[in-house]
Input
Amino acid sequence: MEDPLAEWVARAQKGDRAAFEELVKRTHRRVYNLAYHFLSNEQEAEDLTQEVYLRAWRALPDFRGDAQFSTWLYRITLNTAMNYQRTLRTQEQAAGAAETLAHFDAPLPDPAAAAATRDRNARLWATVRRLAQRYRVVLALFYQHELSYAEIAEVLGLPIGTVKAQLNRARRALAALWREENGDDGS
Amino acid sequence: MMDHNLHGQDALAHYAACPMAEWPPALRAHLAECPVCREEMHWLRTVEAALASWPLAEPAPGFLERLLERLAREQVPARAGQVLPWNIWVPAMTLGAALIIAALALPPQISQAWEPAISEWPRQVAPWAAEGRLTLDRGAFWAVWSGLFVATGGVGLTLALSAWNARYTRRVEEVKRALSEAADHLLKMAHRPS
Ligand SMILES: [Zn+2]
Output
């Protein structure tokens, strides 16, 4: 598949900062999104995104274009996120910090945005944060980043079959949580 | 007939994500008669519908600006086929310079002087200073010392550059911040009603 960013990548590889900035502008929301679903924390996701692009800039000469640029970036994002989380975990253990309460600070649904579906969807998206990390990430890659099974397999370094199974388990886990939150009122 | 225990609920999750037109007749038939799977499918479909319009997480305002600003401060240039980094070429150049100086400093008659100088060296290095006696050929002596001098200087330069590179970014930021604070302060003083 032709990489829509190939032209910018080639220029950035020659040291063209403006081209790299263009790549950042076109991809930062997705990198941030993935970092956010991995870490469940906005500030940390922002820091992580910066780190991802610093690494990408340094590693750009090594990018050979056998994967899409965005896939390559997502891989860097997840690798960086895993390192980042290891560091955080060590720090938290050292400080004896309590379990993260990230999932309690989901944004409250806006009452003015009346539409019931909108409100319900917003609540459901917030419920994703209660899922296990591996489920959040695979759901984000499939539904938000619209990657194919093969691309997700490449980003996560997993066989396609495992990706499909994980996606189905994530859907079931989310459905179970949603059902639990909503009782049996049928919505 | 599709047994929900036999087929497992992963199959339901899979079909929940597909258009109903793609549902196999066996699944339809089973759903028609199994309230458990029907219920499960209902929740899966609700989730599916919401995920289909799941927007990207919104970063805080000014995120892109902060990101670009941070990246602009990055010193390392990306270049395809990048030349060797400075922490390799500086010591390499130093070593090269040391060798060249050593070669230039060696007098032409060194070929004769070299043999005895080398063989006597271990004994001569320490006593030579005390006894004020120099068996080692004078040219070779200077060649060795100037080589050592340049090499030591090169190591020093390398270490200094390394420290500078790491602190440079932060220092420049500190100076910039201090300057802008001073400017703010002056502006406030100028605008203060007297
Ligand atoms: Zn059933």
About this structure: Confidence is low (pLDDT under 50) at residues 96-111 of chain A. The pocket of zinc ion is lined by residues B 4, 30, 34, 36-37 (CB under 6 Å).
